[in-house]
Amino acid sequence: MDLQRFLGWRVATLLLLMPCGLQCLSVHIINEEPVHVIPGSSLVLKARIEHGPLEEISAVAWEREPETGLSPGRLALATCPGRSLGCSATRPNVHVTMEQQESTLQISGYSNTESGVYAVTVTDNKGAKATAHCIVRMYEEVHHVSVSINVSHSSLVCGEAWGTEPNFSWLYERAAVTQTVGRVSKDGTTLLVTMTPFCGHFTCTVSNKLGHSSATYTAAPCETKGSGTIAAVVCFILALLFGGALAFVLWRRHRHNNRRERLREHLDDTI
Ligand SMILES: *[C@@H]1O[C@H](CO)[C@@H](O)[C@H](O)[C@H]1NC(C)=O
């Protein structure tokens, strides 16, 4: 009785130590979804396979199906018959490797027709299956940048159509936006304008790995209170210069006269 209980405990402990008991086949794709691939570059998907101690992987298959659309056809890309043998791919640009607990799919010279939902299916020696999916899309360049105004909140909103991972940045009169102009929202899409009056040119630039594009919002022209000031300053400087020159000329003449007088005195003395 005691021995039985002891053995029972041992088995229970063993099962606890193995997170999923004796049978647990699972697979997941490590890449963060959705994966965006620049056309012409390589798509690399890695799948991690977990299985119980008594299980053995007998097949790994990679497939693809369209993300949307009416034809839900699955296209086989590659299969691996277990761990020991090599994998075979259905296309020349597809390459699959199989290691201990990892399978890697690589597609070189990626094109948009290869976007879709990728699936990896693992089968064990008892016929149990596990599948993982990953959405793969083409990396798109920035398209159709526009800036619109939200009059009620005196803010400018920058929009972009369908570029991948867009990064927003703002310029005011071709210089970086400062605290005196306004505040940019955390995601960069909105510029809350705090300067008064609301005037001048505001430019939003959207960029990603493939390039950038911008749009400018033109508010009312800024009051040129500057030009009046500048004119006044210029007049002041001119007046100073003129005054200085006049003073110099007068001083020179005065000194000259003095010297002539002194010379005459000197001559009178000597004669
Ligand atoms: C203006 O911005 C506010 C705050 O973000 C928002 O609630 C409102 O809908 C916006 N108005 C327009 C016309 O977009």
SSE topology sketch:
Blueprint: H1 2-17, E1 26-29, E2 35-37, E3 43-50, E4 57-65, E5 75-80, E6 88-89, E7 94-99, E8 102-107, E9 116-124, E10 129-138, E11 146-150, E12 155-159, E13 167-172, E14 175-176, E15 182-184, E16 190-193, E17 201-208, E18 211-218, H2 225-270
Parallel strand pairs: 2-10
Antiparallel strand pairs: 1-3, 3-8, 4-5, 4-9, 5-6, 7-8, 9-10, 11-12, 12-16, 13-14, 13-17, 15-16, 17-18
CATH top level of the largest domain?
A: Mainly Beta
Helix content: 10-25%
The molecules bound to the chains, other than polymers, are: 2-acetamido-2-deoxy-beta-D-glucopyranose
CATH architecture label name of the largest domain = Sandwich
CATH third-tier fold name of the largest domain = Immunoglobulin-like
Number of E strands? 18
Question: Taking Cα atoms only, what radius of gyration do you get, to the nearest Å?
Answer: 40 Å
Full CATH superfamily name of the largest domain: Immunoglobulins
The order of strands across the largest sheet is 2-10-9-4-5-6
| Approximate strand percentage | 35-45%
Task: Characterize this entry briefly.
By secondary structure, the protein is an alpha+beta fold. It contains two helices and 18 strands. Helix content is 23%, strand content 38%.
Description:
- It is a single chain.
- With 271 residues, this protein is of the alpha+beta class.
- The protein has two domains: 18-138, Immunoglobulin-like (Sandwich); 146-218, Immunoglobulins (Immunoglobulin-like), CATH 2.60.40.10.
- The protein has two helices and 18 strands.
- The protein has helices at 2-17, 225-270; strands at 26-29, 35-37, 43-50, 57-65, 75-80, 88-89, 94-99, 102-107, 116-124, 129-138, 146-150, 155-159, 167-172, 175-176, 182-184, 190-193, 201-208, 211-218.
- The strands form four sheets. The chain has a six-stranded mixed sheet with strand order 2-10-9-4-5-6, with no helix packed on it.
- Strand 13 (167-172) and strand 14 (175-176) form a beta hairpin.
- The longest helix has 46 residues, at 225-270.
- It is elongated, with a radius of gyration of 40 Å.
- The mean pLDDT is 86.
- The chain binds 2-acetamido-2-deoxy-beta-D-glucopyranose.
- The site of 2-acetamido-2-deoxy-beta-D-glucopyranose has 3 residues, from loops.
- Residues 150, 152-153 line the site of 2-acetamido-2-deoxy-beta-D-glucopyranose.
